[in-house]
Design goal:
Elements (H helix, E strand, L loop, with lengths): L9 H14 L4 E9 L5 E9 L2 E8 L6
Antiparallel strand pairs: 1-2, 2-3
Length: 66
């Protein structure tokens, strides 16, 4: 069975955040990665260190019905 990965802007948005962190030296990028979730969409994680503590930023497409 073939699965098709859905097109996404998640990686593009992740790159914007990556460039932002590169310009702001008080945010240290300690890792990054992406995976394909169970709905075949990308999710991107950026791991940062800020003031000695580590954080993770997850970027994923969200659909809301208001």
């Amino acid at each position: 069975m073939k699965y098709k990965i859905k097109s996404s802007r998640v990686l593009e948005i992740g790159n914007i955040f990556q460039r932002f962190m590169d310009k702001h030296k008080n945010l240290e990028c300690v890792g990054s990665g992406f995976y394909i979730n169970n709905t075949m969409e990308f999710e991107r994680d950026l791991e940062i260190k800020y003031k000695g503590k580590e954080y993770i930023i997850t970027i994923a497409k969200v659909e809301r019905n208001l």
